Amino acid sequence: MNIKQAISKLLYDMNIDPAEYRVIFKHQQGECWDVPFNYLSFNGNYFSYGESSTQYPLHRIVAIYKKKGEFLIKRKYSPNQVEILPKKIELIPGVYIGKIYDEFTIARYAWLIIQHTEELLSIDREGALEILGDYTQKEEFMVIKKGYFKGTIATQNKIL
């Protein structure tokens, strides 16, 4: 399978969730970036990462893999020169995420927002949940009532 076929498969195969895949590409001078597939935008033979307007040619992609370790594409690269992105997202306990980021950004970084919010649960449960939106408590479960994360359930310092 070549790079274009792998990208097409991830974009158009309804049985595959592109959010489960990551892409490693040559950024510059031997440095590679490892990024979630859904952070990339494709335009013909080029792609861009995140909000950047920088266009990279498709041949810079050295690997496309599932988080469980299954590779669709794997070419030669040095694993010790790979930087995993994104590193972190700014969250303020008690401040609704929608006041900081637009809905598109929230959707793109949802997994990271959930991951960081879950880390905050043991420190400040109420403040952490308010990041995701207004919530209601039913016994030991907290349920987000509205916003992008509506219906998200938290219990025992875990987000389900």
Could you explain how this protein is built, in words?
The protein is of the alpha+beta class. The protein has two domains: 3-84, no CATH class; 97-159, no CATH class. Helices cover 22% and strands 31% of the residues. It has helices at residues 3-12, 103-108, 110-121, 125-132; strands at 21-28, 31-36, 40-43, 46-49, 56-57, 61-66, 71-74, 82-84, 135-138, 141-144, 153-155, 158-159. The strands form three sheets. A five-stranded mixed sheet has the order 7-6-1-2-8, with helices on one face. Strand 4 and strand 5 (56-57) form a beta hairpin. Helix 3 (110-121) runs antiparallel to helix 4 (125-132). The protein starts with a helix and ends with a strand.
Secondary structure layout:
Elements: H1 3-12, E1 21-28, E2 31-36, E3 40-43, E4 46-49, E5 56-57, E6 61-66, E7 71-74, E8 82-84, H2 103-108, H3 110-121, H4 125-132, E9 135-138, E10 141-144, E11 153-155, E12 158-159
Parallel strand pairs: 2-8
Antiparallel strand pairs: 1-2, 1-6, 3-4, 4-5, 6-7, 9-10, 10-11, 11-12
Helix pairs in contact: 3-4
Keywords:
4 helices; 160 residues; alpha+beta; 5-stranded mixed β-sheet
Global shape: elongated
Query: Based on DSSP secondary structure assignment, what is the total number of beta strands?
Result: 12
| CA-CA gap between termini | 35 Å
Radius of gyration: 18 Å
User: What fraction of the residues are assigned to beta strands by DSSP?
Assistant: 25-35%
Mean pLDDT: 91
Count up the helices: 4
Strand order of the largest sheet: 7-6-1-2-8
Q: What is the total number of structural domains?
A: 2
String of helices and strands: HEEEEEEEEHHHEEEE
Q: Based on helices, strands and strand pairing, what is the structural class?
A: alpha+beta
Unreliable residue stretches: none
Q: Percent of residues in helical segments?
A: 10-25%
Major sheet description: 5 strands, mixed
